[in-house]
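question for whoever is on the cluster today: can someone run the full assembly for these? three chains, 1061 residues total. i dont have access anymore since they changed the login thing
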Amino acid sequence: MSERILTCSAALAEALHEEMRRDESIFILGEDLVAHGGVFGQFKGIPEAFPGRIIDSPISETGIAGCGVGAAMTGMRPFIDFHFSDFLTCGMDELCNQAAKIRYMSGGQVKLPMVVWCPDGAGLRAAAQHSQSLEAWFVHTPGLKVVVPSEPADVKGLIKAAIWDDNPVMFFQHKKLFAKEGPVPEEEYVIELGRAAVKKEGRDVSLLCYGAAYYLCLEAASTLREDAIDAEIVDLRTLKPLDMDTVARSIRKTHRAVIVHEACLTGGFGAELAARIQDELFDELDAPVKRVGAKDVPIPFSPSMEDFVLPSVADVLEAARAVTYR
Amino acid sequence: MTVEIRIPKLGLTMTDAVLVKWLIGAGDRVVKEQPVCVIETDKVTLELEASGEGLVHPIVEPGRRVAVGEVIGYLAADETELEALRAHHATAPTGPKETPAPKKPEKIRGATAMPKKSAGRGRILASPAARKLSTTLGVELKEIFGSGPGGRIILSDVQRFAETMRSTPFAGGYDIATVAPETELLNVAETIAIRGVRKIISRNMMLSLSRQAQLTLHTEASAVALRDMRALFNTSLEEGQPPVSYNAIIVKAAAQALRRYPMINAMVDGRDIRIWKQIHIGVAMDFGKGLIVPKIRNADTKSIQTISGELNDLAARAEKQHLVPDELWGGTFTITNLGNWDIDHFTPVNNFPESAILGMGRIVERPWVRDGIVVPEPRISLSLTFDHRIIDGALAAELLKFIKDRLEDTRLML
Amino acid sequence: MSSDKQTLLEIYRTMVTVRRFETMAGEYFAAGQIPGFIHLSIGQEGSSVGVCSCLRKDDYVVTTHRGHGHMIAKGADLKRMTAELFGKKTGYCKGKGGSMHIADFSIGILGANGVVAGGLPIITGAGLSIKLRKTDQVAVAFFGDGAANRGPVHEAMNMAAIWKLPVLFVCENNQYASTTPMHYACSAGDLYTRAAAYDMPGEKINGNDVLAVREATASAVARARAGEGPTFLENVTYRLKGHYEGDPQKYRTTEEIEIWRQKDPIEHFGRMLAQKKYLTKKHAAQIREAVQAELSEALAFAQNSPFPEPGDAMADLYSNP
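^ ran it for u. tokens below:
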């Protein structure tokens, strides 16, 4: 398969172009989308190519999320842009009490195919209310699916799967990664939800990660190699449904696991994954499962403090060394 | 009032014992402190005494392994109680009656502080993967030294141990069969199960030789001063006091040497070297039932007479198998004397996890050169084995010389 | 909007069905056969039936925790409704939703919602969907005076207005939000006046006059189908029973309830039909009997239906295409 280099935002735009051309039921709703093609350029070209199918909303997150629900249950495939994941709190009833539950409560009478697309993450000095990683809340809500890609090729393949999934899918993309470049296949393809990827094979420790944390693990693995520690990197990609088989295969090989995410440590997705690992793979473990995440405070504004709070390559190295007893 | 007879905890890490035999018959009347049965732990065989007067009702049959705290029998106050006990608990067979041993003042010493992090002591810390692998390989965790935090046995420890086992053929302790089959030319005269003390020795020897980097320095000392000192002690003995042995003097010299060279009074613990505060010297003894190494605690603080007295007491009880596990534990150095069997130089094996052992040979008259003339002189061979991982040759040699000097001029021990 | 005898008698019959259903539900709840809680709409039939009688099968409706009336008025199957209330496998939602989440998507009912005002943003979304698909369907949200004060109502109305969505915001003002009187909780008194703030026509109607409700609704529906945008209708009515079955109702007086009992919408309509000679006493009795027979059948169906298997709880979470 031949590839070219695209940024994460270009990969997203390309996927949307392809799917919106395919199916008229897909439309995009959110704030500040039409004038610039989205604040991150993620919808570049779409207002021109699909007039009337990308709609600017007033600042009404509750209404936006609710519209998504209403449209999804009446034959459309809404793509809801939530601007910043922090604002999901303004639509929690619509997402967690309605979107997640209506199919179930109706006894399966209806499907709700909607994508809730949220830029998230920290490191941009945007402070506490514009920097969060909230994926754990939605993993904790039965009825939703949760996707967190890291590389452009994952973005493109997974967003298609999310659009075509007949269930509400929370799709998080780190703000700092919009400009991140990576190879993307020329041909069209889909990456099904619930499939993790072993992006680097290794023998000594499994680094389980997703989103921006993938890049921390990549750098850490390179440093660990100098210490003769051969790290394996598993990019989870979808948190729910989780590809536990790939995780298990990795841990059966390395016997040591470090989970890395940018979200804060307590109650983060790492806690769920660590619990499952010790439950299902207890006898494979040569060391306790370690988690790396942000410190448990709101993200502070001043750069040195933000950098202190966020997980770093050094944190990953420390955890990897601890579990390999080096 | 019916009293339970339970297996006592006789050592910090004791978890169980084998009930070897009952010394009385079911329903027999015993008096306080009368021995009622014999139990065997990993370290020692000893007799359990009745806590009071009563009729014994045994409920566990000989040969069974019992846990610490488990009830093996009851002491009934009278026939009525005995009947009630018989109704509730089946009487165990006790085998042939034996005459009860004479009352002796058994002192069960309290548990001493043991190094918690040595292999095979206390709760064994091991990662789940290490446990699983050790089960798969049929290797006991307590035989493996843990290099992880807190002495945790990790996968690589098990893997390394298994490698060592594979490349070191030996018999005893494991199920690795390397024995020739029986044919008409080769029949088994006797089969002895490896258990108890033999199993421990077998295992410790292997551990010691596989885990440490051992080598032995040999030297010889003049035994003149040593002989003179012993004679001096023995001429001033009091009524009933047993004679002072060479071992006692050598223990003292060794204790002083270890004070001077604390690095040798040390052990490897995972990634660290632990240098002990106390000096507890074990003296190897053999009474035909396997090697036994009782300890002289805080040997550096005791006089030669005290050490000698203790050694005699320990030896006497060891012969009767009346030692308790804690008297056999917690040593930091060992001396072993094969002089009685005319042995000179030999290569003793470290008493794992100790880092050094001093072997003594016989005292024998040899030609020696003094001031240019050949003279007959009583000489004694000294052999020091040490763990080169943490003790370098020069240091070991210094220690050996220090001991040799004090044996050659005993005034230096004052 | 047709007002011939046939149509009016059908409306009458539907109102009686709602009343009898709610009464039966109350009785069986008190007898312990209905788990959880129920919220009856006895006294509000003028609004529910009046509005729904103007709708097509493919028009959308969202309703509230007090939604049995809207369900029946829109054409729901009584057997499946009763079975759902009883928590049976044969219920509309297979026993998974119960009274507050009952739904029938085949007749456009996008569900009752257990979150007060939860349905409004959803109905706006349905309206958006209609507009994007370019059909002439209409989307109707029922909500109460209590819901009117929630944020989502504001957002939903504003969005429906700016996009001219084919939505009816039907506020059934029954004077009380649980124990809180409307005149306390709602600033500026009336609710229909809020519509003006959203550049949307608003009207206050006697909710107990089913024909008045029909008239107002018909205009609003016509507007919507013509693409002229949303309308706000405030149907003033009263619930004759408590907020929930078992409500001690200390927040209102028996005198007040009696006053409103005199304004019973079914009796009012029945008198009107009688005056027009459309409905005799005998005919009214026949209708009552027929309705009762239908309900008895529904009740028997529900009582004889099996409960779901406990493990059925794990199904219907995701849609797997």
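summary bc i know u wont read the tokens: The CA atoms of residues 355 and 387 of chain B lie 5 Å apart. The longest strand of chain B covers residues 356-370.
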